[in-house]
Amino acid sequence: QVQLVEYGGGLVQAGDSLRLSCAASSGTFSHRPMGWLRQAPGKEREFGASITWTGDSHYGDYLKSRFTVSRDNAKNTLYLQMNNLKSEDTAVYYCAASEGRNTNAFYYRHSDRYDYWGQGTQVTVSS
Question: Alpha-carbon distance 51 to 80, whole Å?
Protein backbone atom coordinates (compact mmCIF):
# COMPACT_ATOMS: atom_id res chain seq x y z
CA GLN A 1 0.00 0.00 0.00
CA VAL A 2 1.25 3.46 -0.90
CA GLN A 3 0.07 6.64 0.74
CA LEU A 4 0.44 9.90 -1.13
CA VAL A 5 0.12 13.40 0.30
CA GLU A 6 0.14 16.45 -1.93
CA TYR A 7 0.93 19.96 -0.78
CA GLY A 8 1.88 23.30 -2.22
CA GLY A 9 -1.42 24.36 -3.76
CA GLY A 10 -2.98 27.74 -3.14
CA LEU A 11 -4.41 30.92 -4.61
CA VAL A 12 -2.18 32.74 -7.09
CA GLN A 13 -2.54 35.28 -9.85
CA ALA A 14 -2.24 34.61 -13.55
CA GLY A 15 1.40 34.52 -14.59
CA ASP A 16 2.61 33.32 -11.19
CA SER A 17 4.44 30.08 -10.44
CA LEU A 18 3.78 27.28 -7.96
CA ARG A 19 5.55 24.06 -7.10
CA LEU A 20 3.45 21.13 -5.99
CA SER A 21 4.98 18.33 -3.98
CA CYS A 22 3.80 14.80 -3.33
CA ALA A 23 5.28 12.80 -0.47
CA ALA A 24 5.04 9.03 -0.82
CA SER A 25 5.05 6.67 2.14
CA SER A 26 6.44 3.69 0.31
CA GLY A 27 10.10 2.77 0.17
CA THR A 28 9.49 1.46 -3.34
CA PHE A 29 8.86 4.99 -4.63
CA SER A 30 12.07 4.98 -6.63
CA HIS A 31 10.75 2.10 -8.76
CA ARG A 32 7.25 3.43 -9.35
CA PRO A 33 5.87 5.35 -12.29
CA MET A 34 4.25 8.52 -10.96
CA GLY A 35 1.87 11.07 -12.34
CA TRP A 36 0.01 14.32 -11.85
CA LEU A 37 -3.59 14.61 -12.95
CA ARG A 38 -6.06 17.40 -12.38
CA GLN A 39 -9.79 17.95 -12.22
CA ALA A 40 -11.46 21.29 -12.77
CA PRO A 41 -14.99 22.00 -11.51
CA GLY A 42 -17.57 20.32 -13.70
CA LYS A 43 -14.95 18.57 -15.81
CA GLU A 44 -13.48 15.11 -15.99
CA ARG A 45 -10.11 14.32 -14.51
CA GLU A 46 -7.37 14.95 -17.06
CA PHE A 47 -3.79 13.90 -17.45
CA GLY A 48 -1.06 16.36 -16.59
CA ALA A 49 2.34 14.71 -16.47
CA SER A 50 3.97 11.36 -15.79
CA ILE A 51 7.48 10.24 -14.98
CA THR A 52 8.98 6.77 -14.67
CA TRP A 53 11.87 5.67 -12.51
CA THR A 54 14.18 5.99 -15.53
CA GLY A 55 13.39 9.70 -15.67
CA ASP A 56 11.34 9.44 -18.84
CA SER A 57 8.52 12.00 -18.73
CA HIS A 58 5.41 12.84 -20.71
CA TYR A 59 3.04 15.81 -20.59
CA GLY A 60 -0.48 16.69 -21.59
CA ASP A 61 -0.31 18.92 -24.64
CA TYR A 62 -1.72 21.93 -22.83
CA LEU A 63 0.95 21.72 -20.09
CA LYS A 64 4.11 21.18 -22.07
CA SER A 65 6.63 24.04 -21.82
CA ARG A 66 4.91 25.55 -18.79
CA PHE A 67 5.02 22.66 -16.33
CA THR A 68 7.90 20.38 -15.35
CA VAL A 69 7.58 17.08 -13.51
CA SER A 70 10.50 15.74 -11.49
CA ARG A 71 11.21 13.33 -8.70
CA ASP A 72 13.64 12.98 -5.83
CA ASN A 73 13.91 9.29 -5.10
CA ALA A 74 16.05 9.88 -2.01
CA LYS A 75 13.18 11.90 -0.50
CA ASN A 76 10.32 9.77 -1.90
CA THR A 77 8.90 12.96 -3.36
CA LEU A 78 7.34 13.91 -6.67
CA TYR A 79 7.21 17.52 -7.86
CA LEU A 80 5.31 19.58 -10.39
CA GLN A 81 6.77 22.99 -11.16
CA MET A 82 4.07 25.16 -12.70
CA ASN A 83 5.04 28.40 -14.42
CA ASN A 84 3.01 31.12 -16.13
CA LEU A 85 -0.19 29.87 -14.56
CA LYS A 86 -3.46 30.63 -16.29
CA SER A 87 -7.02 30.79 -15.00
CA GLU A 88 -7.80 27.56 -16.86
CA ASP A 89 -5.20 25.79 -14.70
CA THR A 90 -7.57 26.15 -11.75
CA ALA A 91 -8.27 22.62 -10.55
CA VAL A 92 -7.63 20.03 -7.88
CA TYR A 93 -4.28 18.44 -8.61
CA TYR A 94 -3.79 14.78 -7.76
CA CYS A 95 -0.62 12.80 -7.36
CA ALA A 96 -0.83 9.17 -8.41
CA ALA A 97 1.40 6.10 -8.29
CA SER A 98 1.34 3.02 -10.46
CA GLU A 99 2.27 -0.62 -10.00
CA GLY A 100 3.15 -0.71 -13.70
CA ARG A 101 6.53 -1.77 -15.06
CA ASN A 102 6.46 0.04 -18.39
CA THR A 103 9.39 2.45 -18.60
CA ASN A 104 7.69 4.64 -21.20
CA ALA A 105 6.01 7.59 -19.48
CA PHE A 106 3.55 7.92 -22.39
CA TYR A 107 1.89 4.68 -21.18
CA TYR A 108 0.75 6.44 -17.99
CA ARG A 109 -1.32 9.19 -19.59
CA HIS A 110 -4.61 7.49 -18.59
CA SER A 111 -6.13 7.56 -15.12
CA ASP A 112 -6.67 3.80 -15.10
CA ARG A 113 -2.90 3.19 -15.22
CA TYR A 114 -2.63 4.34 -11.61
CA ASP A 115 -3.25 2.29 -8.48
CA TYR A 116 -2.80 4.82 -5.68
CA TRP A 117 -4.04 8.38 -5.35
CA GLY A 118 -3.48 11.29 -3.04
CA GLN A 119 -6.32 13.39 -1.66
CA GLY A 120 -5.56 16.29 -4.00
CA THR A 121 -4.48 19.88 -3.53
CA GLN A 122 -6.42 22.88 -4.79
CA VAL A 123 -4.80 25.33 -7.17
CA THR A 124 -6.76 28.48 -7.92
CA VAL A 125 -5.50 31.01 -10.45
CA SER A 126 -7.16 34.40 -10.49
CA SER A 127 -7.07 36.47 -13.64
Answer: 11
Q: Determine how many CB atoms are found less than 10 A away from the CB of residue 78.
A: 28
Q: Chain centroid to CA 31: how far?
A: 16
Question: Residue 77, SS3?
Answer: strand
Instruction: Report d(CA 114, CA 86) in Å as an integer.
Output: 27
Give 17-75 pLDDT, tens digit per residue: 999 999 999 778 889 999 999 999 999 999 999 999 999 999 998 886 899 999 999 99
Cβ atoms within 10 Å of 67's Cβ, excluding its own? 21
| Distance between CA atoms of residues 49 and 108, nearest Å | 9
The C-alpha atoms of residue 105 and residue 37 are separated, in whole angstroms, by: 14
